[in-house]
Write a structure and sequence with these properties.
This protein is α+β, with helices and mostly antiparallel strands and about 575 residues long. The chain contains 15 helices and 31 strands. Strands 3, 7, 8, 9, 10, 11, 12, 21 and 24 form a nine-stranded mixed beta sheet that branches. A five-stranded mixed beta sheet has the order 16-14-15-17-20. A five-stranded mixed beta sheet has the order 28-27-29-30-31, with helices on both faces. A hairpin with a 2-residue loop joins strand 14 and strand 15. Helix 2 runs antiparallel to helix 6 and helix 2 packs across helix 11. It binds adenosine-5'-triphosphate and magnesium ion (MG).
């Protein structure tokens, strides 16, 4: 491909709209352009990278025995009503009407469509197991689209769905996908980790997220420093707290805490450690308000609380609700005399003589004791794991890092086959529900995550397998016939050998060409300059290491092809 004929609008300036480095670099490398919030056009370099990611995904999905299909992206509401998600999916679902005023949505995911296909086409155990996948555009009306294609509203996803006759089969299908995902992300050149993930309301033991390790990741990952336990923080379990102290209960007292609201302000003012205080946090759910109690130095884990309560909506209560239930302004809620369902974090079991809000402006209670001064409905693990917490599996300690979720594998069980009547006949002729799994990978997010992990201050350093081209040939001076002739020869020769070559035939200053080369991050650069050429030499530069070797012109193709082959085999 010739640079002069390719639309690669590179940018010198830092794009102000971008917060993370992958977004900045995808804009600067001329890979993407924004059309509207969370909606992007892919330009030629962007397309080439996405196609490489897709190809790796396809090869590994096919290798794992999955079959490719393409489902529609505009979906009739009726299917979504059958599964119940028309009402539950909320505002992320883009709803449409056709000319007959019939309801549709733009598919954010395809469990309903695939289950409908399965109930029509699968009737016998002989057709099982089966795994069907597609690579297709989704739309999710995200609350906060950001980071470019990493969290877009319109994006391309590979989604796969497995159907099995029994649990054992479903587990095998799950493991096959786990292995395929591991290969896919390895081949994309990513440093990643599979972590246990929250299964939300669907429940079940099986869900893993594939997290690309990056400080800018939106997800917090908890991992053990000694065993292989790793989980999304939403999911991470807390080992049960220590035994109750044998401190004697003291007399409950009310103390004035003028203008002190935060844990730090109150505990400093009272001269007690934060772990003596209990925060009372009021939430609203579809089943009404609830109070969650956690220790002052701990944070509430909303995902765990939501799962524990079995609700879909859980939001911090607004000032008005807090005032209604506590009869005090925000910041002074406490469990004593509070007429609400109360869930206490397990750590509270070990506590006595706690500091709690007094449900009164500028006042707290000290020496509050559970059982004597207030009662909770139950104890549960509802706090966020913190660095240094004991590992739930071994004697190690937990550490916290950040990641970008690029893939998610999930055992669905019979949630959809039950709701939509997808059954098959077993060997004995009994009608049984299909057991399902679903498996997603974000194509754009994977590419962006790769850039997040592979760049320097000058630009992208593409992992070889997903680079838009293998080699960039830079003739330093276009006007010099010898230089251009040699560059053209190399271009032809390498292309014939099967290399993916980009020839920078633009009439630009060398500085511009080199800057662009660094931004777009093609792994190998072959520079044809007047001085070297006079001695029959050209220069090979490896983008990642910056290493430069000067080689004889006639050896250059062999050298480059050797490097490409070594990369392809790695
Ligand atoms: P997140 O928690 O990041 O919103 P999710 O749990 O909603 O992700 P899934 O429904 O499991 O995501 O979708 C499968 C994959 O699709 C994700 O692992 C991710 O790679 C990709 N994906 C999801 N939402 C987006 C988005 N808004 N933009 C780009 N890719 C996305
Ligand atoms: Mg989401």
């Amino acid at each position: 491909m010739r640079f002069s004929q390719l639309l690669v609008p590179t940018l010198r300036e830092e794009p102000a709209e971008a917060e993370v480095v992958s977004h900045k670099l995808m804009l600067r490398a001329g890979m993407i352009r924004k059309l509207a919030a969370g909606i992007y056009t892919l330009l030629p370099l962007g397309v080439r990278v996405m196609q490489k990611v897709e190809r790796i995904i396809r090869e590994e999905m096919n290798r794992a025995g999955a079959q490719e299909v393409v489902m529609p992206c505009v979906l009739p509401a009726d299917l979504w009503k059958e599964s119940g998600r028309w009402d539950h999916y909320g505002k992320e679902l883009l709803r449409l009407k056709d000319r007959h005023d019939r309801d549709y949505c733009f598919g954010p995911t395809h469990e309903e469509v695939i289950t409908d296909l399965a109930r029509r086409e699968i009737s016998s155990y002989r057709q099982l197991p089966i795994n069907l996948y597609q690579i297709q555009t989704k739309f999710r009306d995200e609350v906060r689209p950001r980071f470019g294609v990493m969290r877009a509203r319109e994006f391309v996803m590979k989604d796969a769905y497995s159907f099995d006759a029994d649990e054992a089969g479903a587990e095998q299908s799950y493991e096959r996908m786990y292995d395929a995902y591991t290969r896919i992300f390895q081949r994309c050149g990513l440093r990643f980790r599979a972590v246990e993930a929250d299964t939300g309301l669907i429940g079940g033991r099986f869900s893993h997220e594939f997290m690309v390790l990056a400080d800018t990741g939106e997800d917090a990952i908890v991992s053990c420093d000694s065993c292989d336990y790793a989980a999304n923080i939403e999911r991470a379990e807390i080992r049960r707290a220590a035994e109750k102290t044998n401190e004697k209960p003291k007399k409950l007292e009310r103390v004035q805490t003028p203008d002190r609201k935060s844990v730090e302000e109150v505990t400093t003012f009272l001269g007690v450690p934060p772990e003596r205080l209990v925060k009372t946090i009021i939430f609203e759910t579809e089943e009404g308000a609830v109070a969650a109690l956690v220790r002052g130095d701990h944070e509430i884990n909303e995902a765990k609380l939501r799962r524990h309560l079995g609700v879909t909506q859980l939001e911090l209560a607004g000032d008005q609700v807090v005032a209604d239930v506590t009869h005090a302004p925000l910041g002074f809620a406490g469990p004593v005399g509070l007429d609400l369902k109360m869930i206490a974090d397990s750590a509270l079991e070990a506590m006595s003589n706690m500091v709690v809000g007094a449900n009164e402006l500028d006042a707290h209670l000290i020496n509050a004791n559970m059982g004597r001064d207030f009662h909770v409905e139950e104890f549960a693990d509802i706090r966020l794991a913190q660095a240094g917490d004991p590992c739930p599996r071994c004697q190690g300690k937990l550490q916290i890092s950040r990641g970008i979720e690029v893939g998610h594998i999930f055992k669905l069980g019979t949630k959809y086959s039950e709701a939509m009547g997808a059954t098959y006949l077993d060997q004995e002729g009994n009608e049984r529900k299909l057991i399902m799994g679903c498996y997603g990978i974000g194509v754009g997010r994977t590419a962006a995550a790769a850039i997040e992990q592979n760049h320097d201050e000058d630009g992208i350093i593409f992992p070889f397998a997903i680079a838009p081209f293998h080699v960039l040939i830079v003739p330093v001076n276009n006007k010099d016939a010898q230089v251009m002739g040699a560059a053209e020869d190399l271009y032809r020769h390498l292309s014939e050998e099967g290399a993916e070559v980009l020839l920078d035939d633009r009439d630009e200053r060398p500085g511009v060409k080199f800057k662009d080369a660094d931004i777009i991050g093609i792994p190998l650069r072959l520079t044809v300059g007047e001085k070297n050429l006079k001695q029959g030499k050209v220069e090979i530069k490896v983008r990642r290491s910056g290493e430069i070797t000067v080689v004889a012109l006639e050896d250059a193709p062999k050298q480059i092809m050797g490097m490409i082959r070594a990369e392809a085999e790695a």
